[in-house]
């Protein structure tokens, strides 16, 4: 039986997400399962799904019969391609408070996963974007495959990486996270391990066997039985020299100048990709990454991201970026302002100002101090889509179609 084909028992007080089948919450002995179940939408997250997952995790934390939690996605295309950006577009125009409620609940869930008291295993197979990274990237056991394509594509629509994305990207080796955040590029499973966003590499043909093993074995032993002892080479590590040189510092114009004048073709391509995006979103993203490096916990970063998200969606470029990408699909956003030199430092800093009574205040738990970033994969490393999907996943598909046109 495939790991996405189990039946679901629904209680009388099941949420609307459970009743609609958008998320399947299942028990199989000591294994509790969360199955994102919107395959036609690349398992994009809705607000009801977030509420259902959070409630289930709360219940399972106190249930002594639950030993392990497993996150997977239905279908054969994605774990989760993020959120429904059309809903963000609609709510930004008609009900801005709903976006605030959505992000408050989503970011709270991200922190809940990070501090979960039981093993939380995320199978990060195929597409993992945006909100999908928020669900999986903070798990205690993160499994990638040869099919994994992981990224934060927010700058493409004039938004800024969130769901703890600036926490994860600011802690990658060198400036690899800065490169990924500004270009909205994706990474492979091997890259994710090398950058500290995943832990183990399992061939996709062995995922079903791994799920079966999780029902009867402790998590470390189950993963060790099926994980590859040698991880394929990470393509991004081969690019690190020019990435570290070009993305150093806090000046976005300086970064772009170094990229444009680099002898490396990939660097010049990166400059072109960056310059197509919202100048405001890019400048705020760089500032968010630099600030996130100095914050001491995921909770602190999520609280910062909440301020930035509310300020960004209240501006012009998010609505315009979504319009250009998935509403009118002209791929020709009219950014305001339209150039980097027109983005004022005052406007950038305003994105980070306290929200007063609207602040997101996440609970803190006592945890050991986080070590200095030094990515050491648990396994050795070798040297050297189609359809009308209104999610962040579509952004990557559009880019790939244009690149191959």
TrEMBL record:
Residue span of region Disordered: 368-405
InterPro entries (alphabetical): ClpP/crotonase-like_dom_sf (IPR029045), ECH_dom (IPR045004), HIBYL-CoA-H (IPR032259)
Highest rank taxon of the organism: Bacteria
Domain Enoyl-CoA hydratase/isomerase: 32-352
Keywords, ordered alphabetically: Hydrolase
EC number: 3.1.2.4
Gene3D superfamilies: 2-enoyl-CoA Hydratase, Chain A, domain 1
UniProt catalytic activity: 3-hydroxy-2-methylpropanoyl-CoA + H2O = 3-hydroxy-2-methylpropanoate + CoA + H(+)
Enzyme class of the recorded protein, top EC level: hydrolase
Biased composition, class Basic and acidic residues, residue ranges: 391-405
Protein's name according to its UniProt entry: 3-hydroxyisobutyryl-CoA hydrolase
Higher taxonomy: Bacteria, Bacillati, Actinomycetota, Actinomycetes, Micrococcales
């Amino acid at each position: 039986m495939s790991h996405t084909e189990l039946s679901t028992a629904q209680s009388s007080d099941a949420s609307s997400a459970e009743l609609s089948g958008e998320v399947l919450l299942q028990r199989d002995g000591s294994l509790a399962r969360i199955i994102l179940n919107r395959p036609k939408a690349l398992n994009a997250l809705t607000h009801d799904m977030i509420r259902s997952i959070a409630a289930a995790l709360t219940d399972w934390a106190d249930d002594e019969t639950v030993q392990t939690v497993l996150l997977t996605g239905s279908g054969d295309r994605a774990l989760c391609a993020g959120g429904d950006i059309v809903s963000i577009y609609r709510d930004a125009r008609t009900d801005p408070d709903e976006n605030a409620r959505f992000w408050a609940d989503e970011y709270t869930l991200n922190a809940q996963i990070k501090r979960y008291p039981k093993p939380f295993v995320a199978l990060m197979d195929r597409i993992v974007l945006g909100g999908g990274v928020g669900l999986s990237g903070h798990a205690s056991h993160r499994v990638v495959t040869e099919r994994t394509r992981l990224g934060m594509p927010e700058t493409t629509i004039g938004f800024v990486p969130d769901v703890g994305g600036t926490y994860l990207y600011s802690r990658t080796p060198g400036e690899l996270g800065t490169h990924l955040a500004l270009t909205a590029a994706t990474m492979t499973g091997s890259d994710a391990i090398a950058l500290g966003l995943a832990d183990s590499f399992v061939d996709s043909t062995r995922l079903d066997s791994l799920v079966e093993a999780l029902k009867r074995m402790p998590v470390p032993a189950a993963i060790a039985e099926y994980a590859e002892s040698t991880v394929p080479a990470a393509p991004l590590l081969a690019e690190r020299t020019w990435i570290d040189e070009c993305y150093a510092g806090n000046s976005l114009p300086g970064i772009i100048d170094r990229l444009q004048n680099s002898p490396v073709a990939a660097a010049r391509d990166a400059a072109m990709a960056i310059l197509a995006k919202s100048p405001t979103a890019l400048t705020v993203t760089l500032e968010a990454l630099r600030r996130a490096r100095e914050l001491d916990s995921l909770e602190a970063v999520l609280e910062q991201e909440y301020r930035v998200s509310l300020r960004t969606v209240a501006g012009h470029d998010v609505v315009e970026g979504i319009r250009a990408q998935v509403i009118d699909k002209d791929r020709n956003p009219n950014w305001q302002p339209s150039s980097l030199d027109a983005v004022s430092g005052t406007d950038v800093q305003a994105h980070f100002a306290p929200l007063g009574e609207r602040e997101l205040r996440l609970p803190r738990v006592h945890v050991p101090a986080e070590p200095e970033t030094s990515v050491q994969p648990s396994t050795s490393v070798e040297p050297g889509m189609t359809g009308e999907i209104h999610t962040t996943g579509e952004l990557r598909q559009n880019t790939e179609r244009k690149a191959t046109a």
